[in-house]
Write a structure and sequence with these properties.
The chain has 7 helices and 10 strands. The protein is an alpha+beta fold. It is globular, with a radius of gyration of 19 Å.
């Protein structure tokens, strides 16, 4: 038996996808406030209920769809503690099913997310100010793959996870692009401005032209529509920026 995973080596099957730190993260240290909070985001200085009084690092493990009601965060979000850990390489990716390796997370030091301590954190504790890292899209998929393997011992191909997550990841990309087009540099560091404009984007994405048509958010469920919706979003954001007098 493998002491870390709790399963026999023969049960592991094919190697899961590993990822280097250069491809794992989208941003570290200074994460853009315009990026919506997403699965895989890491925060520092969070006091978790039931884990003592010391502030700690945590990672969101909830799927993006489970984190929000419309543009707003739900009251409690599923997270897991993040602690210092040795660098995980090679076949150790498969022997370490209880963690998500976070190599070179802070100042070149290695950390890992502990799935065995998954809990719920009040949403108001997970702020853009306390966010210290965001994952790349591939990094998010690797996290999802490890979560599925940890809880079920079933290995999900990254391509299947990509298809299931594509719509929400594109939506996050579109929202960030919209905010960066519409808001001034000062407003991009102002929570009230970001929240107000995010609500406008959410309304635009969810709007139906008539009772029989699909909203843009519904159309995002099919990859074939992504290019058209990206183009529509760029045009709409440009028009919105002109309306506010903040366009170039």
């Amino acid at each position: 038996m493998n002491a870390q995973s709790g399963i026999g080596t023969a049960d592991i099957g094919e190697l899961m996808d590993s990822i280097e730190s250069t491809a794992l993260y989208d941003e570290r240290e200074e994460v853009s406030w315009t990026r919506p909070l997403l699965q895989g985001d890491v925060f520092d200085g969070v006091v978790l209920p039931g884990f003592g009084d010391e502030p700690m690092k945590v990672q969101i493990v909830a799927h993006p769809c489970a984190m929000r009601a419309g543009p707003d965060l739900v009251p409690r979000i599923t997270v897991a503690p993040v602690e210092k850990y040795q660098k995980v390489t090679g076949t150790a990716w498969d022997r370490s099913l209880r963690i998500m390796p976070l190599a070179e997370l802070v100042d070149g030091q290695h950390y890992a997310t502990k799935f065995v301590d998954v809990t719920a954190a009040p949403g108001q504790l997970l702020t853009v100010e306390s966010r210290i890292a965001s994952l790349s899209n591939r990094g998010i998929l690797v996290l999802q793959q490890r979560l599925v393997k940890h809880y079920t011992r079933v290995e999900m191909p990254l391509e299947l996870l990509r298809r299931e997550s594509a719509a929400v990841l594109v939506e996050a990309e579109l929202q960030q692009g919209w905010l960066e087009e519409v808001l001034t540099e000062t407003e991009q560091r102002t929570k009230s401005a970001i929240e107000a404009e995010a609500a406008i984007f959410d309304e635009w994405l969810g709007r139906r032209e008539d009772a029989d048509s699909l909203s843009r958010r519904e159309l995002l469920r099919q990859d074939i529509n992504h290019t058209d919706i990206r183009r529509d979003a760029q045009r709409a954001a440009g028009s919105r920026a002109d309306e506010r007098g903040s366009g170039s």
